[in-house]
Amino acid sequence: MNALWSVAKAKVSHRLATHWRVESFRLRNETPMVSFTFDDIPKSAATTGAGILEDHGARGTFYVSGGLVGTTSSPNWAAIEAQDIVALHRKGHEIGCHTFAHKRTCDLDAESMTAEIEQNRRYLRLVDPSIEVANFAYPFGYGSFWRKHQLKAAFRSCRSIVPGVNSGAVDLQFLRAMPLIDQCIDRDGIERALDEAQNNNGWLIFYSHDVTEAPSPYGCSPALLNHALEAASRRKIPGLSMAEALLCARA
User: Fold this and answer.
1) N or C: less crowded end of the chain, CB within 10 Å?
2) Rounded to whole angstroms, what are the CA distances from 11 to 6, 72, 113, 142, 161?
3) Domain ranges of the chain
4) Mean pLDDT of the residues in the chain
């Protein structure tokens, strides 16, 4: 019964978060934009994925849950190590927040949410004191209407996994994103998403996890990531981290 209630509560909270905005923000970017983001973070995202982005002159946003760093808890991939976070940061990639213990925001009250955010910030400051965390992604993709006001005070943006391209008036506490996941999107789907961003002067955000030749159900192959970057380059759409894109959006 408790499990059923938890599922029902999560669905209601997520639906409210999807449709009820804290406030409306109008994007002011002069050109279309694309951001590549990675959650959790698998080691392959920090090595193979980051390397591919760098080869194309792009930088990504890596949403870290400090409690997962260096663990063997995932059956799908090897976890990132602390030195990988430092390497990402020093190469110009953005480090974002994914809570410390990778907990759904809909399961957290205000006090617990604050504790998760602060514990993650403390952890990342210990890893490298120069890391400043400004953007957030909802763990497991579950948003929370009740936590959106709180997250607005702590972060410049919150990224969901509800599909879509952001354009015009948007909800910065529930930005839409498209999966860059081999089991969810193909090359034609990537082209269509970039076409929409180009036609609507939009901000396309991709999300993924591991980057390997045989990706998990939540990850992408190097070939798919390369295709997305090449397709964006053909359209002259810059690949920006979330922080970089928000600077352009506020211009």
Assistant:
1) N
2) 9, 29, 18, 8, 14
3) 2-249
4) 94
